[in-house]
Amino acid sequence: MGESHNMTGANPRGRVLLYALLGVAGALVWYAIYSHLLEAAQWLTYALLRLERGRHFSGAVEFFLYETPKVLMLLTLVVFGVGVVRSFFTPERTRRILSGKRESVGNVLAALLGVVTPFCSCSAVPLFIGFVTAGVPLGVTFSFLIAAPMINEVALVLLFGLFGWKVALLYLTTGLVIAISAGWVIGRLRMEKHVEEWVYQQRVGLSPDEEAMSWAARLRTGWQAVGDIVGRVWPYVVAGIAVGAGIHGYVPEGFLASIMGKGAWWAVPVAVILGVPMYSNAAGIIPIVQALLEKGAALGTVLAFMMSVIGLSLPEAVILRKVLKMRLLIVFFGVVAFGIVVVGYLFNLLI
Q1: What DSSP string runs through 244-295?
Q2: Are 71 and 41 in contact (CB under 8 A)?
Q3: 333: which residues sit within 8 A by CB, 6+ positions away?
């Protein structure tokens, strides 16, 4: 019996070692494929398909054949890592961390937790109810609700892989500033009375701590996230890359610079207004962002457009209307939109 117990106890460690070895082998294969994607795309475009170089169509095809596997491979890697990280930050644990925190400190902590905590539009209502009934201040709750979708970790790493650390850091910093500032402003306005009354009547208790997950379970969570998220968003990724390929191949050089460049003072607010109804996920919008920048659009304008698409969506507004009265919902969208516009102008001015 003792020998059997020892063997059983060793199994989890053996599974972790097996996952680690498979992970190293997978990483090596991943890098070998990723580093040769450009050559493969060019061979497919000009050798296999025999398209003529320098044409609009051939440029669009090369862009599509290169960016599609590139973005999907980056997405797979990111989602796996994020899936593991998220196993440490469940919504319930996040709620306990924020409970009892005063404003200002709570706004900062909520925004930081929003980056790594699972969130989507469909979970906005239960998260909001849970936070409010657990005693989290309204402004702190909004800092979390703003940061969670806006500072999308998938977008962050894809931006790093496609544009470098400066653009990724710019996205992270501006997103945190908007989430912290907007939450603080909403908290200062004292709009608790504009939350639907039934929300305060709920009694959502804090459940006991979750059992500690083994590393094998966390790694399995990462792979499950890959199957779930990548399997769900890849059509949007391909569609976004197709749009980006069209922009890359057919939009004349300088055209976007004239309408989305630094010289067009109205470009930033128009980009934000256009971004709200264009509901998309981060993985689908990044290729479009890349193509816009390549064609001369200003970084601040494009960043504002991306943030409005990811952080201010009509489906989220419809869902949040269940728990927010119209005035608070308008204030929420207005404050966030104003922050995004300011960021767009600021970086167009500085960069």
Answers
A1: HHHHHHHSPTTHHHHHHSTT-TTHHHHHHHHHTTS---HHHHHHHHHHHHHT
A2: no
A3: 312, 317
Calculate what percentage of the chain has a pLDDT beyond 70.
76
Measured distance CA(58)–CA(263) in Å, rounded: 31
As a whole-number percent, the residues of the chain with pLDDT over 90 amount to 4
**pLDDT beyond 80 at 310:** no
**Residue 228: DSSP 8-state:** I
Tally the residues of the chain. 351
* Paired tokens of 112: 């930081």
**220/226 Cα distance (integer angstroms):** 10
Is the CB of residue 189 less than 8 Å from the CB of residue 335?
no
Pair 225, 86: CB distance under 8 Å? yes
**What are the CA-CA distances from residue 252 to residues 246, 258, 295, 321 (Å)?**
11, 11, 8, 42
pLDDT > 70? residue 56: yes
What's the pLDDT at 43?
94
Tell me how far apart the alpha carbons of residues 207 and 125 are, in angstroms, rounded to a whole number: 18
Instruction: Find all residues with CB under 8 Å of 211, minimum gap 6, and list them.
Output: none
Task: Give the pLDDT of residue 280.
Answer: 61
pLDDT of residue 3: 44
Q: Which of 308, 332, 284, 311 is nearest to 121 (CA)?
A: 311
- Residue-averaged pLDDT of the chain: 77
Distance in angstroms between the alpha carbons of the first and the last residue of the chain: 69
Contacts of 100 (CB under 8 A, 6+ apart): 135
